[in-house]
Write a structure and sequence with these properties.
Bound molecules: zinc ion
Distance between the termini: 17 Å
Strand content: 15-25%
CATH superfamily: HIT-like
CATH class: Alpha Beta
Shape: globular
CATH topology: HIT family, subunit A
Largest sheet: 5 strands, antiparallel
Order of helices and strands: HEEEHHEEHH
Length: about 150
């Protein structure tokens, strides 16, 4: 489903040649974002040199800005990926979860719950606040939808 750009269009707020940076449609917490390659790749090991370069660029040019929005000056975050059929993945198209942490986030009491929430995505379908966040992030990145 992540191969279809149309599926992600409503939540993209930054993109470069090979990657999209999107807000999670069903965030487990405020600021839950995904970094997704445009090509169908299941394993990060299969990213080619150009794609790694795009990912590096996104890491340098977009990730710190997005994190700052949710963390302020005290950057804290978790990164999660599920790769391969035994990993608990639900979508086989590579996606990197970026989970900004804050002193008052819902997982401070037990960080293990954070991971459980990522893999139990089927049970949650709360997309409240997503539209507002995408709007704010697009403004931050001066992102305007490209044609295609
Ligand atoms: Zn795909």
């Amino acid at each position: 489903m992540f191969c279809k750009r149309s599926v992600l269009l409503p939540t993209i707020f930054y993109e470069n040649e090979h990657f999209m940076f999107v807000y999670d449609k069903y965030p487990i917490m405020r600021g839950h974002m995904l970094i997704i390659p445009k090509r169908h790749v299941e394993d990060m090991i299969n990213l080619d040199a150009e794609e790694w370069e795009s990912l590096r660029q996104l890491k340098d040019q977009a990730l710190p800005i997005a994190l700052k929005r949710y963390c302020g000056d005290s950057i804290s975050y978790n990164v999660a990926m599920q790769i391969g059929e035994h990993s608990g993945r639900e979508i086989d198209h590579l996606h990197i979860h970026i989970l900004p942490r804050a002193s008052a986030d819902p997982f401070q009491e037990d960080s293990r719950k954070l991971y459980r929430n990522i893999v139990d995505r089927g049970e949650r379908h709360d997309s409240s606040g997503v539209e507002e966040e995408v709007k704010a992030l697009r403004k931050l990145f001066r992102y305007t939808q490209k044609k295609q």
